[in-house]
Structures are given as structure tokens and as C-alpha cells.
UniProtKB/TrEMBL annotation:
It is a single-pass membrane protein. Belongs to the glycosyltransferase 51 family. It is found in: Cell inner membrane. This is Biosynthetic peptidoglycan transglycosylase. Its main location: membrane. Pfam families: Transgly. Signal peptide: none annotated. Its EC number is 2.4.99.28. It is an enzyme of class 2 (transferase). Residues 56-216 form the Glycosyl transferase family domain. Keywords: Cell inner membrane, Cell membrane, Cell shape, Cell wall biogenesis/degradation, Glycosyltransferase, Membrane, Peptidoglycan synthesis, Transferase, Transmembrane, Transmembrane helix. It comes from Bosea lathyri. GO terms for cellular component: peptidoglycan-based cell wall; plasma membrane.
């Protein structure tokens, strides 16, 4: 009787597959709902959520894109993703160039959309799994959100120091002014700090940050109106 009641191996596998399919369906449905909700609602980052759960301070004031200086929008595009306005979430040209590097990847190929996907839906840290998930998420975000919304979310969740998130908090902390009043030089320093926001201080820039800000300003000039797709109407 005991053997008759014991589930067969085939039954166990079938049940596991059903649960797996159900989990995937729930995950996809949750992602779709999240994309639709985050198209209009203020968005937290997973890093912010982690700090809240561990009772660490978070400085962030959500502001619409109309209250962020266009200089910062252009500086971030010029610094992080110069083909932002022309790709569909993933810069395949840059990605292929990195993968074809004979000496191995020496730089990143994450677009602003991929960084937004990581900040909003994935976990911090580096792994091939997370990087692999960034690509389909970035494609979905680019399909669901207009370019100005992607930049708006990115600039409101980007980390600019220990517990400092978003352009408004960064502008107030470093320059004692709202993000709408940032100058071109200040915007370039904020953009130049993004690769290492914990160690780089835009208010007291090191030589390395000053050099990075100079490169950002030159790229902004070269980019011209090609970065204007992210500006509010």
C-alpha cells in the first residue's frame, strides 16, 4: 500500500514543471504590471529598498523631468550612452565591440536603459546572470516607456553618494540648489561622478573627476541635438 501511494518520478517531474511554469507566468505578469505602473508612478531603486529594509538613511526627492536641468540630461547621455536616442534599449554596436575585444572586456556596454533596468528591477553587484537579464528588461522598458520617461526614472534613482539618490538630492547636497538650476559645469561633474559615486565628490572634485567632467563637456558639444530626444516636450 505504501508503494502504491508513493508518487512516481514522472509525477514529481510533471508537478515541478507545472510549478515552474506558474512561477514564470507570475514573474512575467508582475513585470508587465511593474512596467505599466512605473510608466507613471515615482520609482524606487532596489538599492533604495535595501537601505530602507536595513534602516539605513535614504535621501531622495522625486522630481519630474521638467524640474531637472537639460544640461544634466545631456551630460548623462554624453557620458553614459551617446547612442541613447537611436537604439532600442541595447546598444548592439557597443556590445559587439566589447565582446570582440581581443584583450577581454575592458569597458562596460550598459546603456542608460540597461542601467535603469538594473537599478529598478534587479540587484546590485556584478554577475553574468544579472547582465543577461538586463538585456531583455532594457528592450521591454524601451518598448513600454518613452525616452524622456527612461531618463526621468534614471535621474531619480541614480546613486550620487552614500544614501544620496536622484538628481534633486544630489543637487541640493553638493551645490545647495535645485536640480532645475544646475549649470553645465555642475551637470558635467555629476555625470562624471556616476561611475564611482561613493568616492567622487562633485562639490570638491579631484583631478580625476575634473578631467572626467571636461570629457563630458566636450562630448556634450559633439553630441549636439542628438541627445534632445530625452528632453521633455
Amino acid at each position: 500500500m505504501t508503494d502504491a501511494r508513493r508518487p512516481s518520478r514522472r509525477g514529481i517531474i510533471a508537478r515541478a514543471l507545472r510549478w515552474l511554469v506558474l512561477a514564470v507566468v507570475i514573474l512575467i505578469a508582475g513585470l508587465i504590471l511593474g512596467l505599466l505602473a512605473y510608466r507613471v508612478l515615482p520609482v524606487p531603486s532596489t538599492l533604495m529598498l535595501g537601505r530602507w529594509l536595513t534602516l539605513q538613511p535614504v535621501e531622495r526627492q522625486w522630481v519630474p523631468l521638467t524640474q531637472i536641468s537639460p544640461a544634466l540630461v545631456r551630460a548623462v547621455i554624453a557620458s553614459e550612452d551617446q547612442r541613447f536616442c537611436s537604439h532600442a534599449g541595447v546598444d548592439w554596436i557597443e556590445l559587439n565591440a566589447v565582446l570582440d575585444d581581443e584583450d577581454g572586456p575592458s569597458r562596460g556596454a550598459s546603456t542608460l536603459t540597461m542601467q535603469t533596468a538594473k537599478n529598478v528591477f534587479l540587484w546590485p553587484g556584478r554577475s553574468y546572470l544579472r547582465k543577461g537579464l538586463e538585456i531583455p528588461l532594457a528592450l521591454a522598458i524601451d518598448f513600454a516607456w518613452p525616452k524622456p520617461r527612461i531618463i526621468e526614472v534614471y535621474l531619480n534613482v541614480a546613486e550620487w553618494g552614500d544614501g544620496i539618490f536622484g538628481a534633486e538630492a544630489a543637487a541640493q547636497y553638493y551645490f545647495k540648489k535645485p536640480a532645475a538650476r544646475l549649470s553645465g559645469a555642475e551637470a558635467a561633474r555629476l555625470a562624471g561622478a556616476l561611475p564611482n559615486p561613493i568616492l567622487r565628490n562633485p562639490a570638491r572634485p579631484s583631478r580625476a573627476l575634473q578631467a572626467a567632467a571636461g570629457r563630458v563637456q566636450r562630448r556634450v558639444a559633439q553630441l549636439g541635438p542628438l541627445g534632445d530626444c530625452a528632453l521633455p516636450d
